[in-house]
Amino acid sequence: MAQQDTDQQRAGVLPVDDEGYVIDTEDCEEREAAWRERGTSRPITVVGNPVLHKECKDVTDFGDELQQLVADMFASQRTAEGVGLAANQIGVDLKVFIYDCPDDEGVRHTGVVCNPRLVELPAEKRRLDDSNEGCLSVPTAYAPLARPDYAEVTGQDEQGNPIRVRGTGYFARCLQHESDHLYGYLYIDRLSKRERKDALRQMAENEPRYPVVAND
């Protein structure tokens, strides 16, 4: 196990625990800064932009272009003061999201997931949490949305290696929210018509605190 971890870290891959899930809670500050400092912040696409409303393409090339995209995503996320960002939120039609998000215990999680798939949970793990949810692509708007308070995602890391990520509470919400993005869903698509209308009203009445792409 120790040798496996050493090999993974040398390849730029997060170590895994005894159950095969990535350990994404170590060296978060250093890893986030290393990505962000290589990136360029881009404006955020907002609801109505076509790239947000369709399933993204699978990541098949894990080369330099993807590495630069991930760096730009971390830079963009920091500018927007977010905790998660999907590639289509900066206009890129690829299944990749990043996160730098605390769970309900205040433990920080930082990582990259390509080609994510949410794991279907058994009934005994589907305890719903109806906390407020917001989205950088629906700036200044918030609404309560029931989601399971535990989530698992399978996918690949930025090097193309298979990974499994799990989270609870706020981080579980983040994993579900960002995975949704890459399949063409915004959180407001899961609201009632009245709640969706109210969220769009909130967005229209306020100014975003970060650069956005206007929908012409």
Automatic annotation (TrEMBL):
Pfam families on file: Pep_deformylase
Enzyme class label: hydrolase
Active site: 178
Catalyzed reactions per annotation: N-terminal N-formyl-L-methionyl-[peptide] + H2O = N-terminal L-methionyl-[peptide] + formate
One Gene Ontology MF term: peptide deformylase activity
The enzyme's E.C. designation: 3.5.1.88
Family: Belongs to the polypeptide deformylase family.
Name the record gives this protein: Peptide deformylase
Organism: Streptomyces azureus
UniProt gene name: def
